[in-house]
Amino acid sequence: MASQVVQQAVPDSLSAKYKGTFAYLTIRDRLPTILTKVIDTIHRNKNKFFEEHGEEGVEAEKRAISLLSKLRNELQTDKPVLLLSDGLPDMEQWNQYVERQQALLDVDEAPSWFKSPWLYVECYMYRRIEESVKLNPPICDFDVFEEGKTQSFFESQQAIMAICTYLQGLHKNMEDLSEEQLLEQFLKLVQVSLWGNKCDLSISAGQDNSQRSSPIDSLETLKHMILVDDSRLVWSVLMNSRAAGGPVKPVARVDIVLDNAGFELVTDLVLADFLLSSKLASEVHFHGKCIPWFVSDTTRKDFEWTMRQVQSANHKWMSKCGFQWQGYMKQGTWVYHDHPFWTLPHEFCDMSKDAPDLYAKLQKSDLIFFKGDLNYRKLTGDRRWDYTVSFDKALRGFQPAPLCSLRTLKADVQVGLRPGQGEKLAATDPDWMTSGKYSVIQFSSPYKE
Known about the structure:
The protein is an alpha/beta fold. The chain has 19 helices and seven strands.
């Protein structure tokens, strides 16, 4: 009964049932395109599977393609959502979530692609892709998105070199920076991490979306595209933690809930390095995905591969960053985590109930950065909020610690705007919510003044 009351108190979920919306266009056009690319990727690796596994590999490739083709047909014809059958640890939670969705519908209706919440069915598609691969040993560990993530990293080399060179320049003078200068550099590197989120392969349906120019050089011209900028509130949290340092409370622990691999991940690592080397934080915890997700999201394999690539780069400052970062991992001042909750379809307001262990872990943080669009959708429930609803209200009680969303807009949900701001943007740029041109730095804290 309590959950029904909550449902009535909040807006509807974004859904393809609203024709003409971005959710509708995503389910109708973008998701089938992504599935077609996945099928093509598996087929193109047929020879590799044969070389590694013989005929068994080829048979597994055929079976995986058959399952994915069936999935694409289900999506395009709005078939009911099917239960998972792969026996993976999260299978029960996924299947229980179908029951939750069914409870919200009429008895004679079943959860389906164009009728159910967009957040749910889009996450479900990626979980079914994983099932299609996992059910087919010996190719069951194949990452269907690895090629795109790798290509994105290499095509962003110039930008990666530039940001690593910038960071190493900061290291030389870090001890001499005044608080005002430290703030200036913090604001810059937060914005670099923010705009790194433009490089999202799921929004471009897998097309190249790499970063080629120096991100530092672009910051000034991009400032007016930040619709909400709470970065000075974030700075205050770090400075307060710093001031409170000592035997009772150490300097801040910062958590970064990651989004994309490739260039964006490097911008996150640069920000994390700055926080440590400036003593704004004493430890940084990264949170990635357990399985390949939303085309370009970071998995543990991507994280470790990126560290190795930066370390072995034929570029002095890039390589130096790689060695420093590997050192942070060995010292335990950088820690990588993954948790099945990040690849479930749940809104984050359900975390304390559905993943109490993860919620308790986040409560140990002094500040959490949530990167990217999918995290923003889950923070706000991916619902049809009015633009002026406060970020706090849209979080619906999800406040394990002070948190900050760094997000470029690629979905039609946005809260925390000034009166008239959203309407004015819509009048001048109809695609403002989905183009990735605009961004927000939004902050919320459970500790009210």
